[in-house]
Amino acid sequence: MSAAKYTQARINPYNPNQYLEPPGYKKDCYNLALELSFEYLGPPGDIVAPSVSAVNEKGEKFPAMGHINTSSSSKGLEWLITLARDNPDKRALKGGEKFGDDAPITFYIADIPLTSTDIKVVFADVPPIPVKPTQLK
After folding, report:
1. For 74-130, how does the pLDDT look when each residue is reduced to its tens digit (9 = 90+)?
2. What DSSP character marks residue 82?
3. Which of 74, 96, 82 is nearest to 48 (CA)?
4. What are the residues facing 92 on neighbouring strands?
5. Ramachandran sector of residue 45 (left: φ over 0; alpha: ψ -120 to 50; beta: rest)
6. What is the pTM of this model?
7. Is-contact 67 22, C-beta < 8 A?
8. 8 Å CB contact between 104 and 72
9. Cα(100)–Cα(36) distance, rounded to whole angstroms?
10. Partners of 62 in the beta sheet?
11. How many CB atoms lie within 10 A of CB 126?
């Protein structure tokens, strides 16, 4: 996993009317771009899209947006986009499916206060993972 923060989204060099990342809207906040690759290790069944969020040192939770970027050829990535919904989609998984194994999947988390110093990523039922975001280039 890697993490990068940004306060202003980059302009798409091929289309100046589009951004490469979701733009930030709140003053004194930043967005977090998380690159993840993961494998489903649970039992077979209809599995809800995993939750992704960040938590700061105050315990404030920042959920992922329903927006992902990837050049991965993994199948079923549209299922992951539903993670931001109140009722995320389910997908039949057998166990052992890999997502983003050939290219990471980028998830976006918005509106983290610039004053936040200790950020942890919470992914599904994995214990919180501390991250030190770099500046997005």
Report:
1. 777 778 878 878 788 899 999 998 888 888 889 999 999 999 989 999 988 889 999
2. G
3. 82
4. 46
5. left
6. 0.84
7. yes
8. yes
9. 7
10. 54
11. 10
